[in-house]
Design brief:
With 234 residues, this protein is of the alpha+beta class. The chain has 2 domains: 2-66, Arc Repressor Mutant, subunit A, CATH 1.10.10; 93-233, no CATH class. It is built from 8 helices and 4 strands. The protein has a 4-stranded mixed β-sheet. α1 runs antiparallel to α2, α2 (23-30) packs across α3 (34-40) and α5 packs across α8. The chain is elongated and about 95 Å long.
Length: 234
């Protein structure tokens, strides 16, 4: 009975192979090991059209499996992102204080020689970024940590010369991003973009510099905080 069933399945396997079915298709259809299928149909020669059809099917299966892996990976990335966002929770005033110091320290020390570092604080507090989220973080830091009011703030917009005709749009953009009156954005500077598009450097809306009036003492205080952090870790 077992031999009869084996012979019966072998006949079906051979017939399916002649019709161009793959080893995996036959294995799944008859519920037998793939090695058995290969042994049974090893002498069956497929036509070129059947071979091409199997190749195309194999590529399609590979493509779908790849898409599934990508979807699974993207889902995992999103889960990690969401979990990371939730792990931040509430940010204390001290945490905000330290974040702002590190942010300001990074910008002021970027591209500057150590000997000129202290000189960066002598002209008052200023901070630049093309990222409105970073700008808003710094504005929140100025308000909560530095006690700076909106009346003490003024802004410079930097853009490439070819964006000059879009000045009003840039003002509307930065006004909307910061929630401050458009009257705050009155100073413009035009940059020469040598061999590069604006999008390669400062972004579609240029970048914004925040300045605080009469803030040399605050700047020196920030410098002291930075020096305190440096001393702590040295």
């Amino acid at each position: 009975m077992v031999q009869y069933l084996g012979g019966y399945k072998k006949g079906i396997a051979i017939d399916l192979r002649k019709k161009g079915f793959s080893y995996d298709d036959i294995k799944n259809e008859l519920n037998i090991p793939k090695s058995t299928v290969v042994y049974w149909v090893k002498n069956i020669k497929l036509e070129e059209s059947q071979i091409q059809k199997l190749k195309n099917k194999k590529l399609e299966v590979a493509r779908k499996n790849s898409e599934k892996r990508v979807v699974k990976l993207l889902k995992r990335i999103e889960e990690i992102r969401e979990a990371s966002m939730k792990s931040i929770g509430q940010i204390s005033k001290r945490e905000l204080w330290l974040m702002g110091i590190a942010l300001y320290w990074r910008q002021k020390s970027s591209g500057k020689k150590e000997g000129n570092f202290k000189n960066n604080f002598q002209n008052g507090v200023s901070f630049s970024s093309a990222d409105p989220s970073i700008i808003n973080l710094f504005l929140k830091w100025l308000e909560d940590v530095g006690g700076v009011t909106n009346e003490e703030l003024y802004f410079d917009i930097f853009m490439s010369k070819d964006k000059k005709r879009y000045r009003d749009k840039l003002v509307d953009y930065w006004s909307g991003m910061t929630g401050l009156s458009s009257g705050k954005f009155k100073h413009f500077y035009y940059l020469k973009m040598k061999g590069a598009k604006e999008s390669d450097t400062k972004g579609k809306f240029g970048f914004l510099r925040v300045r605080v009036r009469a803030s040399s003492m605050l700047a020196r205080q920030i410098n002291g905080w930075i020096e305190g952090i440096k001393k702590f870790y040295s």
